[in-house]
Amino acid sequence: MQDPVVQVGDPVLRQKAAPVAKADIGSKKIQAIIAKMKKVLAKEEFGVAIAAPQIGESLRIFVVAGRVFKEEGRPGRKNGLVESEETARGPFTGQDAPPDQVFINPELTRLSKAKKEMSEGCLSVRGKYGTVMRHEKATIKALDENGKAVSYNGTGLVGHIFQHECDHLDGILYIDKAVRLEADEEMLTAREKVRGKN
Ligand code: ZN
């Protein structure tokens, strides 16, 4: 069966994605792309975010799973790692699931000077995990799926995701930046599973 997520080696992952005209955000075409991204992301057990090039659309759009924001505000999370047992059981379901957040034409407006090593995986690079130096905090501004301007201070996992996803829109994969790269089995402890892939 064909992978629903475009895999490394496909040129679309290496293109600089095009911005979406604000007037087009409400169009059937763009709304269908966003709906497809959410659908593909929802099927990924450890998926935390997805960028449009990962479904073959070279556009500056990414979606972050709602549960990530929920986890971010949850007590017990430290150093960007989700510690609580409840979260470790898996994604939120039903009414407990906050909506996915859509970021269109995102721009990183501020990055903390402080960096740290983060472990990450990517839905477009199956079977691997790596260690990447990322800024500890990343502030983003973007348009949401209704064309409204939003900004968000990303700390921990959210800030990390913002950097990974913005890289996707510029044709950069984490494997280009990783200081270490390992096979999934070796690093996929329970804790890594919770961190998720994007
Ligand atoms: Zn990725």
Overview of this protein structure:
- The chain starts with about 25 loop residues before the first helix and ends with a helix.
- The protein is built from seven helices and eight strands, in the order αββααβββββααβαα.
- Strand 4 and strand 5 (about 125-135) form a beta hairpin.
- The chain is of the alpha+beta class and about 200 residues long.
- Zinc ion (ZN) binds near residues 122, 123, 124, 164 and 198.
The number of helical segments is 7
Give the ordered list of helices and strands.
Answer: HEEHHEEEEEHHEHH
How many strands in all? 8
What spatial order of strands do you see in the largest sheet?
1-2-3-6-7
Biggest sheet architecture = 5 strands, antiparallel
Report the mean per-residue pLDDT as an integer.
85
What is the multimeric organization of the chains shown? single chain
Sum up the overall morphology in one term.
Answer: globular
Q: What structural class results from the helix and strand content?
A: alpha+beta
Helix content: 25-40%
Distance between the termini: 21 Å
Could you tell me the strand content as a percent range? Answer: 25-35%
Report Rg. Answer: 16 Å
Low-confidence runs of at least 5 consecutive residues:
74-92
List ligands, each type once: zinc ion
